[in-house]
Amino acid sequence: MSATQLAATARRQAAHAPSGISVQDVSHTYGARGAGTLALDGINIDIEDGEFHCLLGPSGCGKSTLLYLIGGFIPVQSGQISTATGRVTAPGPDRSIVFQNFALFPWKTVRDNVLYGLKKAGFGPAERAERAQRYIDMVHLTGFENAYPSQLSGGMQQRAAIARTLAVDPGILLMDEPFGALDAQTRRVMQEELRAIWRNSRKTVVFVTHDVQEAVFLADRISIMSARPGRVQHVIDVNMPKDRDETILENPEFIQLSEHIWRLVREQAVAATRGAH
Amino acid sequence: MSSTLDAPRSRGPGFSYTLISVLVRFSPVLLLALLWEALGLSGLISQQMLPGFGEIGSAFMSMLLNGDLLYNTARSVGRAATGLAGAIVVGVMLGLLMASFRSARLLFNPIVQIFYPMPKSALIPVVMIWLGLGDSSKILLIFLGCMLPVVVGTYNGARGVNPFLLWSAASLGASRFDVLREVVLPAAMPDILSGCRTALAFSFILMVSSEFVIATDGVGFLISSLGDGGQYPAMFAAIFFVAGIGFAADRTYAAFARRLLRWREA
Asked: Is residue B12 domain-shared with residue B144, that is, in the same domain?
C-alpha cells in the first residue's frame, strides 16, 4: 500500500469516528457586510463525541445557517468551527447531511442514490451492494430499489435520503429538519428509528428542529436559540433514559421538561413575531 | 404507486391504431400536398413552378439510382455532423465552465450575448475568406452557429441546479470535479438536450445555406445547381429529401432525449 493510499485509508477511518464539534464565537451576516442581516451572533457551543444535540428555535433564528456552517457548505465569516479532523473549511464525508427534502439525485434510482456515497467512501463493489441493501431495508424501502425519486412519495424520498447518508456511516450526522415534511405517524417511527440507530452506531448528531417534543424525544442536550439575530439562549440537558420509545411521551418528567422548554421557546417565538412588525 | 413500478410500461396502442393516428395527425400535410397537385393541374400556377408529384417522384428515383442524391447527402451530413459534434462538445464544456467559474463567466458572457442573436449565415463570406471553398469552411460555420444554443442551454441548466444537490454530493465525499461531472452535468441535462435540439436544427439550416454559396457538392449545392439548370422536379425532389432527413433526425433525437430523461417521468 502506498503512502497516499494509507493516508486515504486513515482519512476514511477518521470520517467514521464520532467527533466532538466546537463552535467558537461564530457570527454570520447575510447580504453585503455592514448593510446585511445579522443571522448569527456570537455562537458558542461545545458538542461532545457521540452526543445527540438538537438546535431548537423559531424559524428565521439561524439554526439551519449554523448547521450549514458546521457542514462547511457556507464559509465561516467570523469565529471558528472545528472537529476531530481539524478546522471546518469545506464539506467532507466526516460530516454528512440530511436536508429537509428534495436532495436525492432525481436521475438516479433509490439504489444508485445510496450507492453514490458508498462509492465515494471507497467501499468495494460487494460491500457497497450489501450495505446499500441493508440501509434500504432499514428505512423500509425494500422493493423500491429501482424506483426513481419522482416515483416515490415525499416520505419515501426522505427515507431514501436518510439511507443514503447513514450508509456512508459518517462520524458526524447533520440533520436539517429531516422529518419536517413527513406525516405525523411516519415522523414518529422515523424518530424512534433514528434514536435506535444512533444508540447502536455511536455517532455525533446535530439535529435542527422547531418542534419541542421532537427535540426532547431525540436529544441529550438542546440548544435553544433566540429569534434573529440567532444566539444560544439556553442549553438544556435532557436527563431521560437512553433507550426511548413511545412510552416516554407519557413520562411526567418528559412532559414537564417539554412544557418548560416550550415556555422558553415561546418567548423567542413571540419576540420574533414582534420583531417582524 | 406500485402499479407504475411493477407493471411493464405499456408500449402504447397497437400498430394499426398508431398508423391511423399518425395519418390523422399529419393530415394537414396531406391536404397541402393535394392543394399543390390541384394548383399545378388547374393551370393557375405553371407546372414549372409546382411540378406534379409524379414528375418529382420519377426525378427522385433517377437521382437515387445514379447516386447523385446519396453522394451529396452523405457529403452534407458529414459536414453537419462534424460541426455539430464539435459544437456540442465545446459548447457543453464552455457552458459548464461559465456556470462554475466567475472569471469564465465574465470573459465569455458578453461575447455569447452579442453573438447569440446574430444570424450565423452572415458569416458565410467570412469563413470562405478564412478557409476557402473546402469542407473546413462549412464545418467551421456549422460549429460556430450550433455552439451558442448549446452554451446557453448548458449554462442556464448548470446555473439552475438545486444547491442542496451540490451540497449533498460534497458531504458524501465528492470532489469539485466529481460534483461538476456527476451532479451539475446530469442535473443540467434537460436544458443541455433542448439546446442541442436547437443546434441540430441550426446545423441543417447552415449546412444547406452555406452549400448554396460555397460548395462543389452537397445537398445545398445539388438543389441550387438543379434550380439554375431549370430541372425543377429534381430540385423539388432534393428539397423534399433533405426536409425528410431533417424531420427524421429531429424525431430520432427527441426519442433519444426522452429516453435519457426517463427519470423525469413518474
From this structure: no
- Please tell me whether residues B19 and B139 are part of one structural domain: no
What pLDDT does A254 receive? Answer: 84
Q: How far is CA A26 from CA A206, A214, B28, in A?
A: 16, 26, 68
| Cell numbers that stand for B62 in this block | 433517377
In whole angstroms, what is the distance from residue A220 CA to residue A242 CA?
A: 8
Q: What pLDDT, on a 0 to 100 scale, did the predictor assign at position A4?
A: 61
Based on the domain organization, do B28 and B74 belong to the same domain? no
In which residue are the cell numbers 423525469 written? Answer: B264
Integer Cα distance of B240 and B230 in angstroms: 17
- B30 and B109 belong to one structural domain: no
Residues B19 and B141 in one domain: no
Helices (H), chain A: 3-16, 63-71, 110-120, 125-138, 154-167, 184-201, 212-218, 252-276
Same domain, B130 and B100: yes
Provide the β-strand partners of residue B156.
Answer: none
**B93 and B214 inside one domain:** yes
Q: Which domains does chain A have, with CATH numbers?
A: 50-76+86-94+172-277 (3.40.50.300), 101-169 (no CATH)
- Taking the CA of residue A261 and the nearest CA in chain B, the distance in Å comes to 31
In the block, residue with C-alpha cell 450495505: A131
Is the bond leading into B117 cis (omega within 30 degrees of zero)?
no
* pLDDT tens readout for residues A190-223: 888 888 888 888 789 999 998 998 999 999 999 9
Structural domain that includes position B150: 54-264
- Report the chain A residue with the minimal C-alpha distance to residue B262: A107
Provide the domain count of chain B.
Answer: 2
Which ranges of chain B have pLDDT less than 50? 1-10
Please, which residues bridge with residue A209 across strands? A56
Q: Select from B4, B169, B263 the Cβ nearest to the Cβ of A106.
A: B263
Q: To probe the interface with B, which of A13, A69, A95, A107 has the most B CB atoms within 10 Å?
A: A107
A90 touches chain B (CB under 8 A): yes
Contact A222, A214 (CB under 8 A): no
Query: Is any Cβ of chain A less than 8 angstroms from the Cβ of B162?
Result: yes
For residue B181, which residues of chain A lie inside 8 Å, CB to CB?
none
Residue B47 counted as domain residue? no
Find where cell 437521382 sits: B63
Task: Write the CATH number for B247.
Answer: 1.10.3720.10
pLDDT in tens, A121-142: 888 899 999 999 999 998 889 9
Residues in chain A: 277
Q: Which residue spans within B102-239 are E strands per DSSP? A: none
